[in-house]
Amino acid sequence: MPSAHYQALAVEPQASDDNDNDEEELVVHWAANLQPSSSSHNHARYHKQLATSSGWEDRLPTPGRGMAPRLSRRRYWMLLVVPLFIVCYFVFSSPLLLGQAGGDGDDDDANNFEPHNGIDGTTAHALNEPLLICSDSSDDHRLYIQDKPRIAYAQLPIIYFVTPTYPRREQIPELTRLAYTLLHVPRLHWLVANDQEKCDTFLDTLLSGFGIPFTHMASPMPSKFRKSKPAPRGVANRRAALLWLQQHNLTNGVLYFGDDDNTYDLRLFSEIRQTQRVSMFPVGLIADYAVSGPVVRDGKVVAFLDSWVAGRRWPVDMAGFAVNLAYMSQYPNVNMPYKPGYEEDLFLRSIGLRIDQIEPRGNNCTDILVWHTQTKSKKSPVVNVESKYLDGRSNLGPLFRSLKLMGVASASDTAGHAAVISKNGKGRSHSYFLS
Ligand code: UDP
Ligand code: MN
Question: Which residues of this protein are annotated with the site description Interaction with galactose moiety of substrate glycoprotein (predicted)?
Answer without folding.
Answer: 384
